[in-house]
C-alpha cells in the first residue's frame, strides 16, 4: 500500500474519521439550539428544509459549544478521545483539567474546531456516498437516468453516462481526502491547544524527580540493609558449620547473631516495603543509627568470625539524627565489603573534627577476589549518593596493601 493510500485509508485515517464523526454527533445538540434561535428570527418553522438555514444554525451553535467547553473537566475528556482516536502522542496532551483562563480558551478553541470540522465531515459522509453510488451505477440502470432523482438531464445522454462512474469514484476519493486532511489537522493542533503548559511540564518534572529520589533512597536502604544481612548471615552460618564439632559455644553465638540479624533486617524490610505500598502505613521499625545500633552492628559482624577493631572518638548520641543514620549505613556498607572480600582485621574509626564527622574503614586486601555480580555491585555508588546528599566527600580504593574507605560528613545538615 502506497503512502497516499495509507494516508487516506490506513488504520490511523479510519480512527480519525471516527473521531470526526463523533465531533459531528456532539455538534448536533448545538445545531438544534441554533435552529431554535434562528427560526423565530427569520420567521421560519422548518429551518432544516433549507441548506442555508441549516448552515446558519450550525454557525450559531458553534459559539455556544465554545462557551460550554470553558468548563474545567472538558480538557481531560477531549484529551482522552484524542489519545484514543487521533494517533497523537499521549505525553503531548495534558491530563488534568484546565485551570487558567488561557487553558480554558485553548480547550474551547480545540473543541469548537473539532465540532466544526466533525459536522462538515459528518454531513459529507452522509450525503456523498449515496450520491456517488448512484453515479457509479448510472450506466447500468437506465431507470436512474433523467430527473426523477434530481440529477441533471444531461447525465442520461451520450458520453456523460460513461463518465459518471469516474465522477462517483472521484467524489469518494475527495471525501476520504477531506476526512484524512481534517483528521490530520486536528491531530496537529491537539498538542498546541490541549497540551500541558510550561507550568504543567515543570510540575510533572518535579514530580518525576521526587519519585526518582524516593525510589533511589529506597533502593539504597534495601541494598545496604538486606545486602549486609545476607553477607553476614552467610559467613556466620559458614563459620558455625566449620566449628560445629569443635567449638559449640561459638556456634551458639553465631546462631544467636543470625537470629538477631534476620529479625532486624525483616523489620527494616517491612519499613521499606510499607513505603512502597500506596495507602499502606509504613512499618514501625526505626531507621538504625550509630547511637542506636553501632555496638550491635559490630557484634553481629564479629559473630561471623571477622576481627573488627572500632575506635569512636565522639558521642554518637550527640550527632544530628540524619548524619547518624547515614553514617550507620556507610559503616555498615564498609563492613559488608570487608565481609565479602575476606580481608581482616577490619579497622573502623569514627571521629568528629572541624564541624565534620570522619569515618574510616580499612581492611587488608583479600588474597582471592570475591566473585563479582554481572554489572558489579552498587555499594560504593550508594555511599557516594548518601555523601553527596549531605554535602560531604568520600574516597575509596586500595593503598599500601589496604582497602580504605574514607568519608567526611558535615555535622550541620541545614
From TrEMBL:
Record domain Signal transduction histidine kinase subgroup 3 dimerisation and phosphoacceptor: where: 215-279
Enzyme Commission numbers on file: 2.7.13.3
Record bears the keyword Transmembrane helix: yes
Protein keywords: ATP-binding, Kinase, Membrane, Nucleotide-binding, Phosphoprotein, Transferase, Transmembrane, Transmembrane helix, Two-component regulatory system
Gene3D superfamilies to which the protein is assigned, alphabetical: 1.20.5.1930, Histidine kinase-like ATPase, C-terminal domain
Ranges annotated as spanning the membrane: 20-43, 55-73, 109-142, 162-187
Reactions performed catalytically: ATP + protein L-histidine = ADP + protein N-phospho-L-histidine
InterPro entries listed in its UniProt record: HATPase_C_sf, HATPase_dom, Sensor_HK_TwoCompSys, Sig_transdc_His_kin_sub3_dim/P
Gene Ontology MF terms: kinase activity
Transmembrane helix in keyword set: yes
Source organism, top-level taxon: Bacteria
Sequence ranges assigned to domain Histidine kinase/HSP90-like ATPase in this UniProt record: 325-412
First-level EC class: transferase
Name of protein: histidine kinase
Species this protein is from: Streptomyces musisoli
Amino acid at each position: 500500500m502506497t503512502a497516499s493510500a495509507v494516508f487516506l485509508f490506513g488504520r490511523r485515517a479510519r480512527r480519525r474519521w471516527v473521531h470526526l464523526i463523533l465531533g459531528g454527533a456532539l455538534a448536533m445538540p448545538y445545531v438544534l439550539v441554533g435552529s431554535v434561535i434562528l427560526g423565530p428570527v427569520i420567521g421560519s418553522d422548518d429551518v432544516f428544509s433549507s441548506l442555508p438555514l441549516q448552515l446558519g444554525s450550525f454557525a450559531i451553535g458553534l459559539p455556544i459549544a465554545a462557551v460550554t467547553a470553558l468548563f474545567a473537566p472538558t480538557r481531560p475528556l477531549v484529551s482522552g478521545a484524542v489519545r484514543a482516536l487521533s494517533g497523537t502522542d499521549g505525553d503531548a496532551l495534558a491530563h488534568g483539567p484546565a485551570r487558567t483562563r488561557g487553558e480554558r480558551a485553548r480547550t474551547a478553541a480545540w473543541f469548537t474546531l473539532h465540532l466544526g470540522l466533525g459536522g462538515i465531515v459528518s454531513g459529507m459522509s452522509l450525503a456523498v456516498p449515496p450520491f456517488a453510488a448512484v453515479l457509479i451505477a448510472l450506466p447500468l440502470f437506465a431507470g436512474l437516468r433523467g430527473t426523477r432523482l434530481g440529477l441533471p438531464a444531461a447525465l442520461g445522454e451520450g458520453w456523460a453516462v460513461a463518465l459518471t462512474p469516474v465522477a462517483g469514484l472521484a467524489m469518494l476519493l475527495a471525501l476520504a481526502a477531506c476526512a484524512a486532511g481534517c483528521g490530520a489537522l486536528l491531530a496537529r493542533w491537539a498538542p498546541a491547544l490541549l497540551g500541558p503548559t510550561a507550568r504543567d511540564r515543570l510540575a510533572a518534572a518535579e514530580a518525576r524527580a521526587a519519585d526518582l529520589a524516593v525510589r533511589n533512597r529506597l533502593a539504597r536502604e534495601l541494598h545496604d540493609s538486606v545486602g549486609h544481612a545476607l553477607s553476614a548471615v552467610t559467613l556466620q552460618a559458614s563459620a558455625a558449620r566449620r566449628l560445629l564439632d569443635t567449638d559449640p559455644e561459638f556456634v551458639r553465638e553465631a546462631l544467636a547473631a543470625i537470629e538477631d540479624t534476620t529479625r532486624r533486617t525483616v523489620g527494616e524490610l517491612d519499613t521499606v516495603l510499607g513505603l512502597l505500598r500506596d495507602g499502606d502505613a509504613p512499618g514501625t521499625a526505626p531507621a538504625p543509627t550509630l547511637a542506636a545500633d553501632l555496638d550491635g552492628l559490630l557484634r553481629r559482624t564479629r559473630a561471623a568470625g571477622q576481627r573488627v577493631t572500632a575506635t569512636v572518638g565522639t558521642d554518637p548520641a550527640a550527632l544530628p539524627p540524619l548524619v547518624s543514620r547515614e553514617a550507620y549505613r556507610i559503616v555498615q556498607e564498609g563492613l559488608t565489603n570487608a565481609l565479602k572480600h575476606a580481608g581482616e582485621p577490619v579497622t573502623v574509626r569514627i571521629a568528629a573534627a572541624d564541624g565534620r564527622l570522619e569515618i574510616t574503614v580499612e581492611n587488608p586486601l583479600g588474597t582471592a577476589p570475591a566473585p563479582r555480580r554481572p554489572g558489579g555491585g552498587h555499594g560504593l555508588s550508594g555511599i557516594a549518593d548518601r555523601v553527596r546528599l549531605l554535602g560531604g566527600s568520600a574516597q575509596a580504593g586500595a593503598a599500601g596493601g589496604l582497602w580504605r574507605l574514607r568519608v567526611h560528613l558535615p555535622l550541620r545538615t541545614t
